[in-house]
Structure formats: C-alpha cells, structure tokens
Amino acid sequence: MPGGSGRGSSNRGPMPRAVQVSKKIAWLLRHGAAEEGLQLDANGYLNVQDVLGNRKIHGLKVSLEELRQLVADNDKQRFTMTPVTATAEGEADENADADAAKHAIPSSKPSDWLIRANQGHSLKVEDEGLLTPITAENMPAAAVHGTTHAAWLLIVASGGLKAMTRNHVHFASGLPAGFTSIASEDDAAATAAAPVISGMRKSSTVLMFLDLSKAVAAGLKFWVSDNGVILSEGNADGLVPLEMFRRVEDRTGEGVLLEDGKVTKEAPASWAAKAKGNKG
Hints:
Largest sheet: 5 strands, antiparallel
Number of domains: 2
Oligomer: single chain
Number of helices: 10
Strand order of the largest sheet: 7-10-14-15-16
Structural class: alpha+beta
CATH architecture of the largest domain: Alpha-Beta Barrel
CATH topology of the largest domain: ADP-ribosylation fold
C-alpha cells in the first residue's frame, strides 16, 4: 500500500496534491483517529477543525474551502461532509441527522463542519450510525467483489472472503466502467446499470458475483454506505463463504472459476508461481 510521503514512485513524479490530501484524510478517518487521540462519533464523524489541525495534515495547510471541494470532486465519493447543527440549548450536536444538517446555515469556520469516511474503516464504528441495512425491500440488483489472481488462491484456501484488516468485506453494486461480465443472464443487472464509482479496484482480474438474497437468507448481515458500497462482516467466523457466490469469473481469459457456490476450475499454476514471486 502506498505510504503517505506525498510522492509516488520515481518514474511517476510527485503525487498530485488532491491525491495526497485525500490519502491523509482517508487514513485519519478510517484508521488513525484513535492513534492521533481523536474519537469518531456514533456516526463516524470527526470535527473538521480537529482534522485540519491534526499533526499529519496541518503541514499541508488545507483550507476549509479546499476540503469541501475535495469532498465534492472525489471520484469515489469516499467522504461525507456536513454542517454541525445546533440543539435547542444551543450546543453543538454532532449526531444530528441528515435532514437537520441540510437546513443548517453554511459556515466558513472549520469547527462548524463534520467529516467522515463513508466506508473502509478498520476503526470500530457502529454500523447503525454509518450505514443503511440491506433488506428485501432495498436489496441491490447485484453485489460484486473484485480481486486478484493471487488473492483468489487465498480465498479458495480459506473457503471465502474475509474482511482482513478492515471491519467489512466490500462489494460493488455493479461493475466499473469498462468492465464486462462473460455471462449475459444472471448478472445482467451488474452491467446494465450505471457503472459504479466505488467498491472495486479497477486492477481487479477476478470478479466474484454474490448471491445476495441467498446470503441474507443464510443470516449474513449486509449494509450499504453513502457512496453505494455494499458491506458485510460475514458470518460468525468473519467469512462470506464461497457457497454464497453465484459465479466467479476471470477477466484474463480463464473463464468461469466457480458456479453455484462450487469451484469448477482450478486456477492455472502460473497464478501460484506469480503469487510466490511477489512474496520474494
């Protein structure tokens, strides 16, 4: 994972400022708040003044206006920013709902604003405050997890998807622009809908199509974030089992790897060799 030095690799040149600032903010809101002595509220928010004053961000001299623009322009809509609203007693209410925030008077003071990451936390955040539960009434038409050849081998070995260092396994509600499924029936909704903007890396080479209704019926809980990412903590073992997937397919020509919850094709030996080489 790239570090926060503010520079890319030597052949890529300096990291654009917007990317640099976004990475720093995302790290603080998703992973580093406790380490920095900050406490997310029940809805996952931090006060913007605390964010901009943080020792790892202060040196970038980020203004409130720049932050608001960054949040608005972020291609994956990683953040939500909302005004602090006042209670009847005149005290700041950082847990105010979206409707109340909508009617708040805009302010140019960082202390009058809150910001949160929409998903991707390793910090403990109450799901009910941050996410919307998925039920039969609001169930997305598709849930797709994108992964790599090397990771697919580990997924098969473990029997399913795990959240690893994050709180949830992430799924996109469709396919990113330029992605297509090799099947044309069961998961047509994933390609027919507007391309998703978040929930899957564009470098993904393996697509895992979840049978969401089957997984929910099996007792797994699912949520959706403000930017449309589908999330699950998995079962009691923290696993979204392979049995819950309708199909897994390779984007590089190997075809279908799993169908109706059962692995139908072994991964090529070259995938294992490549994974071993990456560890060396």
